[in-house]
Design a protein that fits this description.
The chain has 13 helices and 12 strands. By secondary structure, the protein is an alpha/beta fold. It folds into 2 domains: 127 residues, Aspartate Aminotransferase, domain 1, CATH 3.90.1150.10; 241 residues, Aspartate Aminotransferase, domain 2 (3-Layer(aba) Sandwich). The strands form 3 sheets. Strands 2-8-7-6-5-3-4 form a 7-stranded mixed beta sheet, sandwiched between helices. Strand 5, helix 6 and strand 6 form a beta-alpha-beta unit. It starts with a strand and ends with a helix. The mean pLDDT is 95.
Length: 379
């Protein structure tokens, strides 16, 4: 089996799963309880927070645990809107965001907020100048993903940050779910990023784990109210075992990170070079993009047909975003890139991780050659 759907979810690393099981079995206290079992659980929780903060270069007080990237995006956006609505109701995002961002924005529009959706160029990249042009006196939030989950385009986060230095009252949120361990992301005290979303199952952690970075001094309203966990900002008993496992997964991700990125780039570039040789293939990813995503279409063949054809070869890929594939909706990213719908419906995504090999890519291409021969005469 070859698993090339890592942007949807990654396989849990063995030692990460071992950590989860060990903590679940031996440290089952509620971290909010006052007895010694609660103290042990809370100690591990804070140790995990400190470790994650150290790895990504922030203060431990700036890390808040969530259940997913979706929750993190919702919290960053709606929490900002609720907290700052008395100062303005204008938000800025892009046309190619993850559904967790787009749907949050849509819900806020129903509540009277205004949203500006920035366009992208043919490579799926926004312009920092467009961000500046969109800013109004009542703008309270700019939310931009670091890496697009469908085509792998890398957004000019630093340039946008420089624009926003002139507007210190505007919150800057970055969906970093596809970026962590793949592309540089500066979250140091000098960075302009105020909020950043992360998801554990994208880097060999367990599903149901994530964290949100909230820069010291920035305030957003809580989405979940109740027992006052996470310093009163995110109520709900913390998933201590999952969090400890996520901290371990992040540590492993950053171990020899540069070598892992280079290996994925090599595989990505190899696949792009080989796919470019086929006249009926249209590539949507470039070598300037994230190192782990190759998105392309075989003209005239619907994406789900290609996915199932590869599945018969025990190769698992996806049709662009996993969040929209089961709904059989076309790619909003490709639409924003002005790709005709007839071609966009054929798009598929190969997404890599650090455990994938060039030999797997070669097997994929041999299977693609058979698929291409079978379908090349379809118009």
């Amino acid at each position: 089996m070859i698993y090339f759907d890592n942007s949807a979810t990654t396989q849990v690393e063995d030692s990460v799963l071992e950590t989860f099981m060990k903590v679940s079995q031996k440290m089952n206290g509620n971290p909010s309880s006052l007895h010694k079992l609660g103290d042990v659980a809370d100690g591990l929780l804070q140790q995990s927070r400190k470790q994650i903060a150290s790895i990504i270069g922030v203060q431990e007080s700036e890390i808040y645990f969530t259940s997913s990237g979706t929750e993190g995006d919702n919290w960053a956006i709606k929490g900002t809107a609720i907290e700052k609505m008395r100062y303005g109701k204008h938000l800025i995002t892009t046309m190619i965001e993850h559904p967790a961002v787009k749907e949050s924005m849509a819900q806020l529009e129903q509540l009277g907020f205004e949203v500006t959706y920035l366009p992208v160029n043919e490579e799926g990249i926004i312009s920092a100048a467009d961000v500046k042009s969109a800013i109004r006196p009542d703008t309270i939030l700019v939310s931009i993903m670091a890496v697009n989950n469908e085509v792998g385009s890398v957004q000019p986060i630093e340039e946008v940050g420089e624009v926003l230095r002139e507007y210190p009252s505007i919150h800057f949120h970055v969906d970093a779910v596809q970026a962590i361990g793949k592309v540089p992301l500066d979250l140091s005290s000098s960075s302009r990023i105020d909020l950043a979303t992360f998801s554990g199952h994208k880097f060999h952690g367990l599903k149901g784990t994530g964290f949100l970075y909230i820069k010291r001094g920035r305030i957003i309203a809580p989405l979940l109210n109740g027992g006052g966990q996470e310093k009163g900002r995110r109520s709900g008993t913390e998933n201590v075992a999952g969090i400890a496992a996520m901290a371990r997964a992040l540590r492993l991700l950053f171990d020899q990170k540069e070598q892992k990125i280079a290996a994925q780039k090599q595989i990505r570039d190899y696949m792009i070079d080989e796919l470019e040789k086929y006249s009926k293939v249209q590539l949507f990813s470039t070598k300037n993009g994230a190192p782990h995503i190759v998105c392309f279409a075989l003209t005239g063949i619907r994406g789900e047909v290609s996915v199932h054809a590869f599945e018969k070869e025990e190769i698992f890929i996806s049709t662009t975003s996993a969040c929209s594939s089961r709904n059989k909706t076309s790619s909003s990213t490709l639409a924003a890139m002005n790709v005709p719908n007839k071609i966009a419906t054929g798009a598929v995504r190969v997404s890599l991780t650090d455990t994938n090999t060039k030999e797997e890519a070669q097997q994929f291409l041999r299977s693609f050659e058979k698929l291409y021969e079978n379908f090349k005469n379809i118009k």
